[in-house]
Specification:
The structure holds 2 protein chains of 2 kinds. Chain A is of the alpha/beta class. Chain A folds into 2 domains: about 80 residues; about 120 residues, no CATH class. An 11-stranded mixed sheet of chain A has the order 1-2-3-4-5-6-7-8-9-11-10, with helices on one face. The model of chain A has no long low-confidence stretch (mean pLDDT about 95). By secondary structure, chain B is of the alpha/beta class. In chain B, about 30% of the residues lie in helices and about 15% in strands. In chain B, the strands form 5 sheets. In chain B, strands 5-15-14-12-11-8-7-6 form an 8-stranded parallel sheet. A two-stranded antiparallel sheet of chain B has the order 1-13. Chain B starts with 17 loop residues before the first helix and ends in a 13-residue tail after the last helix. Classes of the chains: A alpha/beta, B alpha/beta. The interface between A and B is large, with 51 and 54 residues. The structure holds iron/sulfur cluster (SF4). The site of iron/sulfur cluster has 14 residues of chain B, from strand 1. Iron/sulfur cluster binds next to strand 1 of chain B.
Chain lengths: ~230, ~475
């Protein structure tokens, strides 16, 4: 696979994204330089290919990704990998608010910390955070896993649906309708396998799995017949 | 719990049964016998029978009430508070039955950024109503009817149905804060993308779909467990303020390669500011939904007591666009309680480029029609008074996910009814426009209107009938 270098600088973001698509579709792997933490780099990437941002990126890097392998050398802004349905996004540094928001599949691997509301409204897929999670991690997340090797901030797992937040470190506080459960051995194996795949050291971790208490799930229809009252 | 008091207090006596709490001893079944009174039907201005019934229901339920349909607040002004003043001596009318009046409506072309602005044959399209709130058959019927009329529909928040995409020649895809099923494939299938920051029926809150309607297909599309109460997030997952929204809009433009317009939908609350902010953030089209806007389910208090009426929102919205020099760039669409072509024409005259209709389209399709009366009665209502979309037991198969009930929607006949209704109201708009001497419905203007009440004049700045000047403070 030949490599194509695309420079960002202050050029038109629309043209830059077009160049990414053309290069990936032509079978090149792409190295992006002079990223300047610009927003919307690598939006709507195709089902395969590799793109390496050699610097920091702004909001929505890898947003709506369908399968490309994205690597961010430094830090990423808000909404990294939002609504992605496939592919892997690796952030070597920190990732801002709402990492993996509403994602439908694929994997996000953050080597540093993640900002607030990591995995908010995610529908599937995995987010692995080697550092700590900000507040309200997994807020209203539907399905999928958020796995943190570090600690979790306040209101962790707030208003979850069926998603899971795994935390190896401390949990500052649980969010509304969240509870900690002991993970099953095979679930731990699944998480360990994923971490191994990412090249993370195999060792014992004292996992806490946060899931929904499900009290909010049926808040309105506790008694369906009563809705006829009005 | 977030909303429950979740009290741990224990009474010094046994917990009453549900029957006792519900006054099942018959105490509320009839009036206590007594001597006839001048106030036989009550007389209190505060404690009307409705207010009493509400307090009693809250006392029994221990939570707010939920219902569908729209605002029941009797104080809400309507478009009937305005009248047209057609051409007489100062203006020339057009021949109502002979001369033509253009209705072509182009939305989203003004910014010049979009490859495929929305070109509609009429200035009316179908408002966002989700699959989930509505049955798939109802969505399809509405889609086909709109397509035949040369106009478009909108997905609502439940994701994009294949049947709906097929039925609707033009389809706007909604991105609500919950982002159910939003992915690149669907985004690229859409003719417009609508970022929703609120809706008129319940501004400041997210979507609501009671468990009865979260059936398997709905739960799959929304990635939810079947049968749960879907209470959607109200804030977008990946942006907060206007500056962030501008970046989000750019992201959507890139994802679609600048092909389709970006709409921003909001409930009418502070239109003078909200519309300006959305326009500045880069929207091609601002959609403003008045407090009369309908919904499949909402806490009743929000339906009745939040937001401002469509009537009062249009002028400040147009003014907002003018203030920031974007009146020609950003299209303005309004909705909320629009019933007929007369209401549509009034919206256009007040400054809208197009209107959306939701409830009116459902009624055209068969909502509240006098069929299956027994089923209405089983819900404790009757045709013409039904507001039970929240229950999922819609007698006519529109607002339901019950397969048997859904069969009551005849897609072909329903589509034709929707089409004919759209045709009829479009004709009404041109009739009024021509009477006012306009060769295009988009030439209707505030001067073509007069207010019939001080309130309407104050809300809209429209001149008072007879006085020929607007009410000012
Ligand atoms: S008839 Fe159906 S759609 Fe109409 S108000 Fe009743 S439940 Fe809702």
């Amino acid at each position: 696979m030949s490599e194509k270098v695309i420079q960002v600088g202050h050029r038109d973001i629309r043209i830059i994204n077009q160049e990414f698509l053309e290069a990936l579709e032509a079978g090149h792997s792409v190295v992006v330089t002079d990223t300047l933490s610009r927003h919307n780099l690598g939006v709507g990437l195709p089902r395969s290919g590799k793109i390496h941002f050699d610097g920091s990126v702004g909001y929505y890097c890898g947003g709506l990704n369908t399968g490309t392998d994205v690597r961010v050398e430094n830090n990423a802004g808000w909404g990294t990998g939002e609504a992605m349905s496939g592919g892997i996004i690796t952030v070597n540094g920190y990732s801002g608010m709402s990492t993996g928001a509403a994602m439908l599949g694929g994997l996000i691997h953050v080597k540093g910390d993640c900002g607030p509301r990591c995995g908010v409204a995610m529908k599937a897929g995995d987010i692995v955070v080697e550092g700590n999670l900000g507040y309200q991690a997994g807020f209203m997340a539907h399905r999928g896993r958020i796995i943190a090797l570090g600690s979790a901030g306040p209101s962790c797992g707030d208003a979850l649906w069926e998603a899971e937040v795994w935390v190896a470190g401390d949990i500052e506080s649980l969010g509304v309708d969240a509870k900690i459960v002991e993970p099953e051995a095979e679930e731990v194996e699944g998480v360990d396998a994923l971490l191994k795949q990412l090249g993370l050291e195999e060792r014992f971790r004292d996992w806490r799995k946060i899931v929904s208490e499900q009290k909010l799930w049926y808040f309105e229809s506790r008694d369906a017949n009563s809705w006829l009252m009005i | 719990m977030a909303d429950d008091l979740n009290s741990t207090y224990e009474y010094p006596f046994p917990m009453p049964s549900e029957e006792e709490v519900a006054y099942s001893d018959g105490a509320i079944k009839g009036r206590t016998p007594g001597s006839p009174s001048a106030y036989d039907k009550g007389g209190s201005t505060r404690w009307t029978p409705d207010a009493i019934a509400e307090v009693q229901a809250l006392a029994q339920l221990g939570r707010y009430q939920v219902r569908g349909y729209n605002c029941f607040n009797q104080r809400m002004p309507t478009f009937d508070d305005l009248t047209f003043v057609p051409a007489t001596m100062t203006r020339l009318p057009l021949e109502g039955y002979r001369e033509s009046c253009d209705m072509t409506t182009v939305l989203g072309a003004g910014t010049g950024l979009v490859e495929r602005p929305l070109e509609l044959k009429i200035p009316i399209y179908i408002a966002s109503m989700s699959f989930g709130a509505l049955s798939a058959s109802a969505k399809a019927a509405i889609g086909y009817g709109a397509s035949k009329a040369g106009t478009m529909t909108c997905t609502g928040e439940g994701g994009m149905l294949e049947d709906e995409r097929e039925a609707s020649q033009k389809l706007v895809y909604q991105l609500t804060p919950a982002r159910y099923g939003v992915d690149l494939e669907h985004i690229r299938k859409a003719d417009g993308l609508e970022l929703v920051v609120g809706q008129g029926a319940k501004p400041g809150t997210g979507g609501l779909l009671l468990g009865m309607k979260v059936v398997e297909r709905v739960s799959k599309m929304r990635s939810l467990p079947a049968g749960v109460d879907q209470r959607s997030t109200v804030r977008h997952p990946d942006f907060l303020g206007a500056d962030d929204m501008a970046v989000k809009i750019e992201e959507l433009r890139i994802a679609t390669n600048y092909k389709v317009p970006i709409l921003v939908k909001m409930g009418a609350t502070r239109p003078r500011f909200d519309v300006a902010i959305a326009a500045k953030a880069g929207a091609d089209i601002v959609v403003l939904d008045g407090a009369e806007g309908g919904t499949g389910a909402s806490p009743e208090l929000l339906l009745n007591h939040t937001g401002i009426p469509c009537l009062s929102a249009i002028r400040p919205a147009r003014q907002a666009l003018e203030d920031c020099g974007m009146s020609d760039k950003v299209s303005l669409v309004v909705s909320g309680g629009i019933r007929t072509g007369v209401d549509v024409a009034k919206c256009l005259a007040l400054g809208a480029d197009a209107v959306m209709i939701g409830t009116a389209a459902m009624i055209a399709l068969g909502c509240n029609s006098p069929r299956y009366e027994k089923d209405y009665h089983a819900l404790g209502t009757s045709p013409g008074a039904c507001h039970h979309c929240h229950t999922g037991m819609c007698p006519v198969g529109i607002a339901t996910q019950n397969k048997e009930l859904e069969k009551r929607v005849n897609i072909a006949a329903g589509a034709e009814r929707v089409y004919r209704f759209l045709t009829a109201i479009a004709m009404e708009v041109t009739m009024l426009a021509k009477a006012c001497g306009k060769s295009s419905v988009h030439n209707l203007e505030v001067e073509d209107l007069r207010a019939l009440s001080f309130e309407a004049s104050a809300f809209t700045g429209v001149k008072m009938a007879g006085l020929d000047r607007a009410f000012t403070w």
